[in-house]
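Help needed: design a sequence for this.
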C-alpha cells in the first residue's frame, strides 16, 4: 500500500509538466519594469530576448545587467490565471555593473490593483521627505527640484514615466518626469 502511495505521489507531482525543457541564454536589463499581472501590478525583470518576468533561483540586483543561462520549462496544463512557462536559473554567465551615468526609464504608478480607485493600496510609500519606496523593491530619491511635481502626480494617482540613475543597488534617483 505504501509503495502504491509513493508511486502515485511521484506520478502526480509530474502532472501538468512537460517532458522536455529548453536551455536558453538571455540578457536581463539592470532595472525592472511595471507589468500587469492577472489581478495586480508588480515590478518584473526586463529582457528583450525572453518573456521571463521572474526566474526561479535568480537574485536580481539593480544596476547590474546579466547574461543568464536558464531552463525554460513548459507546463502541459498551466493554471488559468498563470503562466504556461517556468523559468529556472541554470547559471549566471555574466553580471556587469552599468556605468554611473547610465539612465533608464521606468513607469511610476501608484496603484497596486488596476481597477481600484483607492490610495490605501499604493505602490509608492514615503520613507522620508525625499525618498519613497517603490513596490517594496527599490527606494527612489526625489531631488528638491522635482518634489512638488512628483507629489502632485502621486496625489492625483497619475501614471507617469520618469528617467532615473542608479545610486546604489537599493536606491535610484529620479532625474526627470515625462
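Sure. Designed sequence:
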Amino acid at each position: 500500500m505504501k509503495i502504491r502511495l509513493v508511486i502515485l505521489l511521484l506520478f502526480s507531482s509530474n502532472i501538468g509538466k512537460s517532458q522536455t525543457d529548453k536551455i536558453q541564454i538571455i540578457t536581463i536589463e539592470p532595472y525592472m519594469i511595471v507589468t500587469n499581472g492577472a489581478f495586480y501590478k508588480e515590478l518584473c525583470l526586463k529582457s528583450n530576448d525572453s518573456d521571463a518576468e521572474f526566474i526561479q533561483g535568480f537574485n536580481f540586483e539593480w544596476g547590474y545587467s546579466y547574461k543568464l543561462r536558464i531552463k525554460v520549462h513548459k507546463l502541459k496544463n498551466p493554471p488559468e490565471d498563470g503562466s504556461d512557462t517556468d523559468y529556472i536559473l541554470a547559471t549566471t554567465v555574466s553580471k556587469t555593473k552599468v556605468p554611473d551615468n547610465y539612465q533608464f526609464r521606468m513607469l511610476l504608478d501608484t496603484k497596486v490593483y488596476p481597477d481600484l480607485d483607492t490610495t490605501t493600496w499604493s505602490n509608492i510609500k514615503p520613507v522620508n521627505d525625499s525618498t519613497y519606496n517603490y513596490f517594496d523593491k527599490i527606494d527612489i530619491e526625489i531631488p528638491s527640484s522635482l518634489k512638488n511635481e512628483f507629489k502632485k502626480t502621486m496625489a492625483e494617482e497619475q501614471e507617469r514615466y520618469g528617467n532615473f540613475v542608479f545610486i546604489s543597488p537599493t536606491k535610484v534617483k529620479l532625474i526627470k518626469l515625462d
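Residues 21-97 form one domain.
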